[in-house]
Amino acid sequence: MTPRIADMLTYLAGIVLAALFLMPLLWLVSLSLRTPAEVYLGAARFIPEAPTLDNFRQILSDSAFGTYLWNAVKLCALGALGAVIVATPAAYAASRFTFRGKGPVMIGILMVQMISPLVVIIPLYRYLDRLGLLESHLSVIAVYMAIGVPLSVWLIKVGFDTIPQALEEAAAIDGCSQFEILWRITLPLASPALASAFILNMIMGWSQFLVPFILLTRDGQLPIAVAIYNFAGSSSASTTQLLAAACLVAVVPALAAFLALQRLILRAIMAGAVKG
Amino acid sequence: MIKDRRVWLWFAPVLLVLGGVYLIPVADVIRFSFSDATLLRPVTGYGLGGYQAAFSDDSLGVILRNTGLFTLLSVVSLQAMGLAIALLLVRGDRRGLYGMSALRTIVLAAWVIPGIANGLIWQMLFSEAPFGAINSTLRLIGLSPVAWLSDPGNAMISAVIANVWQGSAFSMIVFYAARRAVDPVLYEAASVDGARPVAQFFFITLPQMRGALLVNTILVTIQTLNTFDTILALTGGGPGRATEVLSLNIFNRVFYSYDLGGGSALAVLLLTISMALTLVYLAVLLRKTAR
């Protein structure tokens, strides 16, 4: 097989794969732009003849949807921020110091990563119920934070590992205290790792369903992932186009954040993937 | 080596958070699994009742079979898909072909979609109404429609397809990184010796990526076992119990049937499987770093 033919086959396979992965999203867009009458025409109207933004207008004019989106942003941003803040000192110590018990602790943190939130949500529900802290965003943020901590510790540690210690030693000779060194030298240099941990946590938090679904029940408190699940439960064939628009509204912020920060995220996952 | 105990202060926040949200609850879930508590009633006594009830339940066999089948099909397809795309990307990069980063972006885009949205999107695609995406396309090209979600066997396949569409990106990245780390000299030597691409794949690519394949298999298995939101939104575990996997069953048991003891017993089972896989994973990693 000549390289030219192999290139053609590579392109062909690439196009087929791209189409396969893109189609579900394009179908979603197509549905969300249709009138109910066109929904019933199925694939024949993949490109709507009379595209309409009415579905989005209807979804977004419902003030509840704005609340769901805001709740989701608030929960995942604060959870992600908390995870990074909690993880950073541990990551620094793991990167810079050698001490007895470090290996077991780091492995323990890794193992926590493998525990499904489903296992811990059962007792957590009972504790929070007894403390009267169900229905509270603060509880949900704390759980998101804990879910994000293990990955954050490892990602940020890998980030610290790449910063030469000589820089810190030079600062120490110039009379900086340990805290000053961390705050002024190391953290700014580690900002790509901190940022990618934050963003990965955000994306994971945005997708989170179980935790808010169990810990929150009041409608005005719910984030968008739970809201579209509830919305789907109450929708029917005649409101498919609205459900599609609602799904798109839930998906687009995550997609946009990902597309804008793709390089950063990719580097972080690669670093994580190589390290395990 | 630092002897100073104050070094643990750096770990205090992490230990506090993980202790409160993971360690104590895990201990408690093990305790609950030996108790007769329900979600609303406290523990009044201990025993093996939860395990007995959960394990003698007729549905458990079906659920474990579903879990095994769903996990096996997902893990194999996720990795096959991830490996195929990764190798395609590496080849495209090497030959300077256009659009490779676009393909990578498209595959990754599916990965950031929330599991619930993923289930709902595929429900619209698999819809068996005359206007459902896939079925109306089949009809357009003159084929007969398929019962994607109402037939028990097909529903399992549909759930796997939805899961693979969303999850392939993770394997793709792991394999892409691993493939790029393979020494190109190996391929040069092989082609000088006249090895064809298929032979190169089996005798260089696969053996060189063995570590990545093993690690990825374990990680993807754990991820697949632990998630259920795609299935919940796609089929709700149905038709009947055809797609009800272990994690979804635990969720239903505890939060819809309020069976805390039985749910906790199965949660302990899920935890045990995840931890056993994690130990294998750690053993693999340690051996890799030792070499």
Strand content of chain B: under 5%
Q: Rounded to an integer, what's the Rg of chain A over CA atoms?
A: 23 Å
* H/E element sequence of chain B: HHHHHHHHHHHHH
Give the biggest sheet of chain A: none
Q: What is the helix fraction of residues of chain A, given as a range?
A: over 70%
User: Could you say which overall geometry of chain A the principal axes of the C-alpha atoms support?
Assistant: globular
Shape summary of chain B: globular
Structural class of chain B: mainly alpha
Number of strands of chain B: 0
Treating each run of at least 4 consecutive H or I residues as one helix, how many helices of chain A?
14
How many runs of DSSP E, i.e. beta strands of chain A?
0
Overall pLDDT confidence of chain B: 87
Unreliable segments of 5+ consecutive residues of chain A: none
Which two chains touch over the largest interface?
Answer: A-B, 92 and 98 residues
- The level of helicity of chain B is over 70%
Q: Care to describe what's here?
A:
- The complex is a heterodimer of chains A (276) and B (291).
- The model of chain A has no long low-confidence stretch (mean pLDDT 87).
- Chain A has helices spanning 3-32, 36-39, 54-61, 63-96, 102-113, 117-131, 137-161, 165-173, 178-189, 191-207, 210-215, 224-233, 240-260, 262-275.
- In chain A, α5 packs across α7 (137-161) and α8 packs antiparallel against α9 (178-189).
- Chain A is built from 14 helices and no strands.
- Chain A has 276 residues and is mainly alpha-helical.
- In chain A, 79% of the residues lie in helices and 0% in strands.
- Chain B is mostly helical.
- Helix content of chain B is 74%, strand content 0%.
- Chain B contains 13 helices and no strands.
- In chain B, α3 (58-95) packs parallel to α7.
- Chain B starts with 11 loop residues before the first helix and ends with a helix.
- The model of chain B has no long low-confidence stretch (mean pLDDT 87).
- At the A-B interface, α1, α4, α5, α6 and α7 of A face α1, α3, α4, α5 and α6 of B.
